[in-house]
Amino acid sequence: MSLLDEMNEKASARGIPLSAHLDITWRCNERCVHCYLDHDGKGEMTTDEIKEVIKQLAECGTFFLSISGGEPLLRRDCWEILEYARALKFNVKLKTNAVMIGPKEAARLRKLGIEQVQISLYSHRAEVHDAITKLPGSLRRTTDAIRHLKANGVKVSVTDVLMKYNHRDAKAVKKLAEELGVNFVIDPTITPMLSGDRGVMSLGITTAELEEIMHTEEFVGDVGEFCAPVSSAAEDVLDGYSCSAGHTLAYISPFGDVYPCVQFPMPCGSLRKQSFHEIWYKSTAFAELRSVHVRDLHTCSHCTHNSYCSRCPGLAYMEGDFRGPSSRDCEKSYVRTGIPSAAMAKNGNRVPQFGASLVQISGVQ
Amino acid sequence: MASTEMYLTQSADIASRTLGDDTIIMSTLDSTVFMLNSVGTAIWNAADGATSLSQIIRERVCAEFDVSDEQAYADAKEFIDELARHGILLIADAPVARKEAR
Predict the structure, then answer these.
(1) Is there a contact between B34 and A3 if contact means CB atoms under 8 Å apart?
(2) B30: which chain A residues are within 8 Å (Cβ-Cβ)?
(3) Is B22 close to A10, i.e. CB distance below 8 A?
(4) d(CA A11, CA A5)
């Protein structure tokens, strides 16, 4: 077990929120076609409020802090926030589209000791990437920024969100990432808008396209090993949890609302009314979430895929029931192995479809 | 015991957090990770650049743990040298000023 795994286990056993994702704004200078956020900045936390939240996170034991948005660098106080977080010795990752990062900013991020800069890259072709971001010149500006970051020794990871518009470019994006000397991740999941609108889901790749991705060596390594069926979960897995959301991970919106994860819009409390400590340890929503083990999941507990399925309780929540399956993850397990999930078996071996708006994110009252 | 006094300062190029008795430290220069036990945590948290190592040993280690001054100092020296090699702890022979987050 690595030291980081050991730390995660200790944090989980002690109920410590080891990781936090803090969106400091939802405003953005890009308008990505698949974005799950609105871009309203009204009511954002002030600089002092954000610093107070960061201080409270440090006091609760948070070590990993992702500063994100929207585009976080659109806030004039973003640098002050980053400096404050580093002064409190957080391991800070910055999620940005990087179009505002030039040589000076890259050097400043290195000096601050930012652990990693995470950037989305949708294509190696400007006509595709820029059409997705709706910002002309964004591919050039983003790749220039990556070069500045690399020249300054800042670690960079690029994520390629796969959509019907760009999935054919994924191999070329991986090659571009290799040329740039940065980490490359593919993400085939489109997240419903936090307003509850599922219209963006139509941008996602089809089951057949997902299957092709899952059987491509460049993306998954040894295809035979990756796609081999595994027997269902052992007792210790059934006693565990689907993911870290709400257990060692919290998400905080620019308005001070706390959720288990950015992809899990179950309101847990408002930092404008309560401390983070109070919300994390006393919220009934967090308590309910933490009471559910894999063995308590009505469909997934007896699914053949449950030992390796990436079931997202947040996506399941947005489909109406966080104890239920997440259809996208059923689909992933199915295309990997060719074996329908328990949820699919209930649905005539088809992936359940959710067309309606089922759950809406809301501020904490 | 030490022939010359030693003052320890946590490097600015680290991320760290104390969780109970343990402390996780990650170098922002090379992502090296260290996990300190309770004795290491006591020394780390006292490394303010102003308190001498012998005072830290006396007040934070020997007062809290069942260990002699000599043994504690020898163990601490080895641990400090290891962290210093990775640039995580800075060693000086005189007190150094300290910056607070504001």
Answers:
(1) yes
(2) none
(3) yes
(4) 10
Give the integer Cα–Cα distance in Å for A99 and A286: 36
Distance of CA A38 to the CA centre of its chain: 17
Cβ contact A16–B26 (<8 Å): no
Residue of B nearest to A52 (CA): B102
> Quick check: A30 and A39 in contact, CB under 8 A?
no
Q: Give me chain A's average pLDDT, please.
A: 91
- B89-92 β-sheet, strand order: B48-52, B7-10, B89-92
User: CB atoms < 10 A from the CB of A229, how many?
Assistant: 13
Tens-digit pLDDT profile for residues A98-111: 999 999 999 999 99
The interface pTM score, or ipTM, of the predicted complex is 0.86
Interchain CB contact of A87 with B (< 8 Å): yes
pLDDT > 60? residue A354: no
Kindly report the number of other CB atoms within 10 A of residue A339's CB atom: 14
Q: Flag whether pLDDT at A243 surpasses 70.
A: yes
Whole-angstrom Cα distance, residue A122 to residue A193?
Answer: 19
Interface contact A92-B17, CB threshold 8 A: no
Beta strands in A128-226 (DSSP E): 156-161, 183-187
Q: CA A276, CA A264: separation in Å to the nearest integer? A: 18
Q: Per the confidence metrics, is the pTM higher than 0.80?
A: yes
The residue assigned the tokens 């200078």 is A29
pLDDT band at A359 (very low <50, low <70, confident <90, very high): very low
On whether any CB of chain B is under 8 Å from the CB of A56, the answer is no
